[in-house]
Amino acid sequence: MSAKTRKFWKALKCPVCGERAVFFVTMDAVKDATQYPVPFEVIHDDHKFLIYLDSGLLISRIEEAKPPIASTEAKPKAKSKPKAKTKKTKKET
Ligand SMILES: [Zn+2]
User: Fold this and answer.
1) Is the pLDDT of residue 15 over 70?
2) Number of domains in the chain
3) Is residue 59 in some structural domain?
4) Is 29 buried (19+), middle (13-18) or exposed (0-12) by CB count in 10 A?
5) How many angstroms is it from 87 CA to the middle of ligand 1?
6) Could you tell me the distance, in angstroms and rounded to a whole number, from the CA of residue 28 to the centre of ligand 1?
7) Do 35 and 49 touch, CB atoms closer than 8 A?
8) Residues 17-70: pLDDT tens digits?
9) What is the Å distance from ligand 1's center to 42 Cα?
């Protein structure tokens, strides 16, 4: 078995869609690096995000890929809902 094409499988939560993303990296991703961590683009469905790999191919950071500047309007991202009123309407038994 040749080690140079060994695949290192990674699974993480996609920062774009929130679904689980499974992909692999090889040593090729970092072998020519002069400094770490190395950005590595991951394609997930119809979007992509960036991970930063250290010399051991461990993910040190995950970043949402920048969208193209051509977008017409910026949608405000509701990433965290304001705390909903917890009015107790249900009957407690
Ligand atoms: Zn995704």
Assistant:
1) yes
2) 1
3) yes
4) middle
5) 34
6) 23
7) no
8) 999 999 999 999 999 999 999 999 999 999 999 999 999 999 999 999 876 666
9) 9
Is residue 81 assigned to a domain? no
Domain carrying residue 47: 32-67
3 state SS of 29: helix
- In the chain, the amino acid numbered 42 is V
The identity of residue 18, as a single letter, is: G
Q: Is the confidence at residue 85, as pLDDT, over 90? A: no
User: Distance from the CA of 85 to the center of ligand 1, in angstroms?
Assistant: 31
Q: How close is the Cα of 27 to the center of ligand 1, in Å?
A: 23
User: How many angstroms separate the Cα of 7 from the Cα of each of 35, 72, 74?
Assistant: 22, 39, 37
Could you tell me the distance, in angstroms and rounded to a whole number, from the CA of residue 44 to the centre of ligand 1?
5
In a domain, 57, yes or no: yes
